[in-house]
């Protein structure tokens, strides 16, 4: 027997009614509850990439007349070969992407007459020695820059430009100083350079060329640093400063270092004292770090100081610089700030050249032949340890 329901005169079976209710339920449910879209995977965060360069810097390449006379190729002729002076240091320099040296004296050319202390004009063949050793950034702003006048400064620029070598601290024109930025790019890292000296040994700049040499002046430095900073990843400033024959840092150096930290400099390469000075890492106001090599001492030199044999011990600054970047941002840091101590070796024999050794290759047998009789390997190592401590890089680490 079927059950019937009267709905206003129409008779439906219970089965038909049930189907109708179910269909309506589905219809209204679908209309009132929003559908949840399928979950889409989030885009992967961009992975930072890194590139790096190695950066080496040497101190005062101060070519006294005794050095180039021992390097003279033929008696009576002004041709010289200084390559042997760098034979033992060349493998270290060649491995670096960027290799800086302070060429303390001008390379004006034969027309100004070659001369040594106290008013220098070094044979341009000495510049060839530096190029062949592997140096590709040459500083020329020092207290000896004006020794032979503006003509020798222009002659020095002519020489480096003829060899396509970057030089710092001297300028061909006011316009070039304002507009040309000294930037070297290696492995995707742009390294920018500036250079300044404390003075000119009493010589003056030409009245119509006050821009010829980079002199330490806070206002000028701040402006030039700020102009270069946005254009490079690593900003390096060469500073000819400090107290001669003193390992310590003076108050002026500290003030200038603080100024450069404020203006976001990354590295200061110091020279002039003829002895080595400490390395310091200073926190910058912007959160970055400033690495300061206060003095790298002498490189190839005949500096004589009766009060100390420490002028024979120089140093190579050794840095690794790493840039971390994505498509929209980057940062550059000095990840290693080490030191490779060096020794300038020479004897009483006039036929033997002046030679720079890494301290790790210097021996007691060589020290016994050095013209300074109070030099020993132990003494030189102690000097280096006292100044640089744990920053000294051993031969095994460098892989030389």
What is the secondary structure topology, with strand pairs?
Layout: E1 4-7, E2 10-13, H1 14-32, E3 49-62, H2 65-70, H3 90-94, E4 98-103, H4 125-133, E5 137-139, H5 149-162, E6 166-168, H6 174-179, E7 183-186, E8 189-197, H7 218-228, E9 234-240, H8 251-262, E10 267-271, E11 279-283, E12 289-293, E13 298-301, E14 313-325, E15 330-345, E16 355-358, H9 364-369, H10 377-388, H11 395-398
Parallel strand pairs: 3-4, 3-13, 4-5, 5-6, 8-9, 9-10, 10-12
Antiparallel strand pairs: 1-2, 3-14, 7-8, 11-12, 14-15, 15-16
Structure description:
The chain is 26% helix and 26% strand. It has 400 residues and is an alpha/beta fold. The chain folds into two domains: 1-35; 49-398, Purple Acid Phosphatase, chain A, domain 2 (4-Layer Sandwich). Strands 3, 4, 5, 6, 13, 14, 15 and 16 form an eight-stranded mixed sheet that branches. β5, α5 (149-162) and β6 (166-168) form a beta-alpha-beta unit. The longest helix has 19 residues, at 14-32. The protein is globular. Residues 1-31 have low confidence and may be disordered.
Label this structure with key terms.
400 residues, 11 helices, 26% helix, alpha/beta, 6-stranded mixed sheet, Purple Acid Phosphatase, chain A, domain 2, disordered N terminus, 8-stranded mixed sheet, globular, 2 domains, 26% strand
CATH-derived topology of the largest domain? Purple Acid Phosphatase, chain A, domain 2
CATH architecture annotation name of the largest domain = 4-Layer Sandwich
Strand content: 25-35%
Globally, the shape reads globular
> Average pLDDT across residues?
90
Share of residues in helices:
25-40%
Radius of gyration: 34 Å
What's the number of extended β-strand segments? 16
The largest pleated sheet is described as: 8 strands, mixed
Uncertain parts: 1-31
Kindly report the oligomeric state of this protein.
Answer: single chain
CATH superfamily of the largest domain: Metallo-dependent phosphatases
CATH class of the largest domain: Alpha Beta
End-to-end separation in angstroms reads 107 Å
Number of helices: 11
Task: Please identify the structural class as seen in this structure.
Answer: alpha/beta
Tally the structural domains: 2
What order do the SSEs take from the amino end to the carboxyl end, as H and E?
EEHEHHEHEHEHEEHEHEEEEEEEHHH
